[in-house]
């Protein structure tokens, strides 16, 4: 992801799994994984929780709110934004310009 794309991430952005990747729960790995033609990425618990909410319908703000409610906490926005930006750099996530 270039710097211009990075600055386009807003709380209204609606991230979704990138082209060529498929998110699924893998019982053998006991975690969510991203499958792609060349292999697989094992996601830790936090990454899996974020990724499974990146459906192209929910905004970053809605994802943050859902996670904060699900885990009875607050202040997750910086971590969620940071992960979404990193995942976009890896092409795991994408979103349309606002």
TrEMBL record:
<dbReference type="InterPro" id="IPR008792">
    <property type="entry name" value="PQQD"/>
</dbReference>
<comment type="function">
    <text>Functions as a PqqA binding protein and presents PqqA to PqqE, in the pyrroloquinoline quinone (PQQ) biosynthetic pathway.</text>
</comment>
<dbReference type="GO" id="GO:0018189">
    <property type="term" value="P:pyrroloquinoline quinone biosynthetic process"/>
</dbReference>
<keyword id="KW-0884">PQQ biosynthesis</keyword>
<dbReference type="Pfam" id="PF05402">
    <property type="entry name" value="PqqD"/>
</dbReference>
<protein>
    <recommendedName>
        <fullName>PqqA binding protein</fullName>
    </recommendedName>
</protein>
<comment type="similarity">
    <text>Belongs to the PqqD family.</text>
</comment>
<comment type="subunit">
    <text>Monomer. Interacts with PqqE.</text>
</comment>
<dbReference type="InterPro" id="IPR041881">
    <property type="entry name" value="PqqD_sf"/>
</dbReference>
<comment type="pathway">
    <text>Cofactor biosynthesis; pyrroloquinoline quinone biosynthesis.</text>
</comment>
<dbReference type="InterPro" id="IPR022479">
    <property type="entry name" value="PqqD_bac"/>
</dbReference>
<dbReference type="GO" id="GO:0048038">
    <property type="term" value="F:quinone binding"/>
</dbReference>
